[in-house]
Write a structure and sequence with these properties.
β8 (167-172), α5 (180-195) and β9 (199-203) form a beta-alpha-beta unit. A seven-stranded mixed sheet has the order 5-4-3-2-1-14-15. Strands 6-7-8-9-12-13 form a six-stranded mixed sheet, with helices on one face. The longest helix is centred in the last third of the chain and has 22 residues, at 384-405. It is built from 17 helices and 20 strands. Helix content is 36%, strand content 20%. The protein has two domains: 2-275, Nitrilase/N-carbamoyl-D-aminoacid amidohydrolase; 279-479 and 526-531, 3-Layer(aba) Sandwich (Rossmann fold), CATH 3.40.50.620. By secondary structure, the chain is α/β, with parallel strands linked by helices.
C-alpha cells in the first residue's frame, strides 16, 4: 500500500510582492516539510500574486518572477512543490512548476485561458496545446492542471487520468462570488468521478483590489466524494493522507481514499470544514476584502462618514471586524436636515462598536456656499443641486481629514444606489474604497441582522435597521421619493445588470414594464458616475467594474 501525504497551501499573497510572496511560500513549504508531506501545492501564479494584470506586459517583471521561482526551487528538498508562475518561453504561459531537490523538475502550462467576467488571460498568455507531463511523487503518478483547465469535461484532467495519473492537482486563483463554492464542488465532484481520479484543488485566499479569493481548498476521491475542505477566507495548510492500495482499481488506477486529514497550524481536524451560511459568507468576504485593501496599500486607519443610516452602520461594522475598533473613526456631519435620531443613532453605533468619533457640523459652510451661489442661481428654484451641495461638502471634509492624517476614507454607497445613480459624485461617492458597492440594499439589511444575531445584542442599533432610508438632504426626504421600493428595485437590478435581461424580458418575467424601463434608463445613464467610483469588494456574479464594461456614450436601451 502506498501512502501519499499531500498538502494544499491556501495563502494570502500580494500582487507584485515577489520577495514577500516567496517568503510566504517558503514558510508554508517548511511547515509541510516538517509534517513529512510528499507534495504541497500553492495557488495559481503564486510567485506574482493574482491577477498581475499589465505587470505581465513588463519584461523585467516577468524576468524577476522567473528568478524568484528559481530561488524558491533551490530551497526545496524531498517534498515536491507545485508553484504557479508566469513562464516566458518564446510566448508567455500561465504555468505551474514542479520543484524538488533544489531544482525545477518540470513545468505544466495552462491550456484553457478564461476571457470572461473578471478574467483577461488571453490578453497576456498563450494557451498550451501539449499534454502536460505526469510526475511520480512517492510512487504515485501525479498530474498538474491550472484553474480553468478543470472546468472542461473533456479537458486536461480527463486526458491525464487516461494517461495514468493517480492524482490530479489543480492550482487556482478562483475569485469569490455568492454561491461560487457550491458550483466549484459540484464541478469537481463530476470531474473526479468521470475521470476516476482523485483531485486536490488548492485556491488562493485574500483580497486584491475589488476581488476576494475565498480559499476553501478541496480534496475529492475518485468517486467524486468530498473528503476534505479547508475553511473559507482564512490562510491554511490543509494536509491529507491518501492511501493507494495495490491491484486493479475502478478504471485502470487504484482507488485512493483518505486515511487521515488535518489542518496544520490551526489544530483543527481538517475533514470537511463547514461552509458558511450565505449571508455570513458575504459578510466575511467584505471583511477580508476590506482588511487586505487597507493593509496591502499601506493604510492603518479608516474614516467613515456616519449618518445614522443602515449603510454607514454596516460599513463601520465591517471595518471594525476587519482592522479593529481602534483604527476606525466615524465622522458625524449633521446639517439643518439631519434628524435628532440620526445623530443619536450614530452615537449609539459608535459606542457599540467601540470606535472614536468627531463631530463636524456642515451648517456654516453650507450657508456660505449658498450665499456664494446666490448670483449664479438667481431666479431658479432650489432643488437637486442644492441638496447635493451638502453631500459634496461632506465629501470635502472627509477627504481633507484623510489628507491631513493619512486615514483611508471608506465610502458607504450600496449596489442599489450605484446602479441607479442615487449617489452624489464628489460627495458621498468620495473616498478610497467602497466596501458595499456590490451589495444590494436588501442584502445590507440582511448583513446587519446577521451581525446582530452573531453578536447576541444590537451591535447595529435596531432603530437604524427599522427607520425608513433617507439621504436627509431635504425636509422629510425618503429614498422612496426618488426610487422604487428596494424590495422591488433590487430584483430588477439583479435581472438587468447581473443576468443581462432586456426590458422586454424583464416584463415577461413579471416586472412592471414602466418601472423596468425607468430602472434600465437610470442604470445606463449613470455609467459615467460608476467609472469615477472607488473600487469595492466584488461579492456578486457580476459587479460594476471589471465584470461589466459598457460604453458611457450609449444610445441603445435594451
Amino acid at each position: 500500500m502506498t501512502r501519499l501525504r499531500v498538502a494544499a497551501a491556501q495563502l494570502d499573497l500580494v500582487v507584485g510582492d515577489l520577495e514577500g510572496n516567496a517568503a510566504r511560500i517558503l514558510e508554508a513549504y517548511a511547515a509541510a516539510e516538517a509534517a513529512d508531506v510528499d507534495l504541497v501545492a500553492f495557488p495559481e501564479l503564486a510567485v506574482t500574486g493574482y491577477p498581475p494584470e499589465d505587470l505581465l506586459l513588463r519584461p523585467a517583471f516577468v524576468a524577476d518572477a522567473a528568478e524568484m521561482l528559481m530561488k524558491i526551487a533551490a530551497r526545496t528538498g524531498r517534498t515536491a512543490a507545485v508553484i504557479g508562475f508566469p513562464e516566458k518561453s518564446g510566448d508567455l504561459y500561465n504555468s505551474a512548476a514542479v520543484c524538488a531537490d533544489g531544482r525545477v523538475v518540470g513545468v505544466y502550462r495552462k491550456h484553457l485561458l478564461p476571457n470572461y467576467s473578471v478574467f483577461d488571460e488571453q490578453r497576456y498568455f498563450t494557451p498550451s496545446t501539449v499534454d502536460g507531463p505526469l510526475f511520480v511523487v512517492g510512487g504515485v503518478k501525479v498530474g498538474v492542471t491550472i484553474c480553468e483547465d478543470a472546468w472542461s469535461p473533456t479537458g486536461p484532467i480527463l486526458t491525464q487520468a487516461g494517461g495514468g495519473a493517480e492524482l490530479v492537482v489543480n492550482v487556482n486563483a478562483s475569485p469569490y462570488s455568492a454561491g461560487r463554492l457550491l458550483e466549484r464542488e459540484a464541478m469537481l465532484a463530476t470531474r473526479a468521478s468521470a475521470a476516476s481520479v482523485p483531485i486536490m484543488y488548492v485556491n488562493l485566499v485574500g483580497g486584491q483590489d475589488e476581488l476576494v479569493f475565498d480559499g476553501a481548498s478541496l480534496v475529492f476521491d475518485d468517486h467524486g466524494r468530498l473528503i476534505a475542505r479547508a475553511p473559507q477566507f482564512e490562510e491554511e495548510l490543509l494536509i491529507v493522507d491518501l492511501d493507494a492500495p495495490s491491484g486493479i482499481r475502478r478504471r485502470l488506477l487504484p482507488e485512493i481514499r483518505v486515511s487521515e486529514a488535518r489542518n496544520l497550524g490551526s489544530g483543527r481536524p481538517a475533514l470537511i470544514a463547514p461552509a458558511l451560511e450565505p449571508v455570513r459568507e458575504v459578510y466575511e468576504a467584505l471583511v477580508l476584502g476590506t482588511r487586505d485593501y487597507v493593509r496591502k496599500n499601506g493604510f492603518r486607519e479608516v474614516l467613515i462618514g456616519l449618518s445614522g443610516g443602515i449603510d454607514s452602520s454596516v460599513v463601520a461594522s465591517i471595518a471594525v471586524d476587519a482592522i479593529g475598533a481602534d483604527n476606525v473613526t466615524g465622522v458625524l456631519m449633521p446639517s439643518r436636515f439631519s434628524s435628532d435620531g440620526s445623530i443619536s443613532d450614530s452615537d449609539v453605533l459608535a459606542a457599540n462598536l467601540g470606535i472614536s468619533t468627531m463631530m463636524v457640523p456642515i451648517e456654516e459652510p453650507h450657508e456660505a456656499f449658498l450665499h456664494l451661489l446666490e448670483v449664479p442661481f438667481r431666479g431658479t428654484e432650489s432643488g437637486l443641486a442644492e441638496e447635493n451641495l451638502q453631500a459634496r461638502i461632506r465629501g470635502t471634509i472627509l477627504m481633507t481629514i484623510s489628507n491631513k492624517f493619512g486615514a483611508l476614507v471608506l465610502t458607504t454607497g450600496n449596489k442599489s444606489e450605484m446602479a441607479t445613480g442615487y449617489s452624489t459624485l464628489y460627495g458621498d461617492m468620495a473616498g478610497g474604497f467602497a466596501v458595499i458597492k456590490d451589495v444590494p440594499k436588501m442584502l445590507v439589511y440582511a448583513l446587519s441582522r446577521e451581525r446582530n444575531e452573531r453578536a447576541g445584542r444590537p451591535w447595529i442599533p435596531e432603530s437604524v435597521i427599522e427607520k425608513p432610508p433617507s439621504a436627509e438632504l431635504a425636509p422629510d426626504q425618503k429614498d422612496s421619493d426618488s426610487l422604487p421600493d428596494y424590495a422591488s428595485l433590487d430584483p430588477l437590478i439583479e435581472g438587468y445588470v447581473e443576468r443581462d435581461r432586456s426590458v422586454s424580458e424583464l416584463e415577461s418575467e413579471g416586472f412592471d414594464a414602466e418601472i423596468a424601463a425607468r430602472v434600465a434608463r437610470m442604470v445606463d445613464r449613470n455609467e459615467y458616475k460608476r467609472r469615477q467610483a472607488a473600487p469595492g469588494v466584488r461579492v456578486s456574479p457580476k459587479a460594476f467594474g471589471k465584470d461589466r464594461r459598457l460604453p458611457i456614450t450609449n444610445g441603445w436601451l435594451g
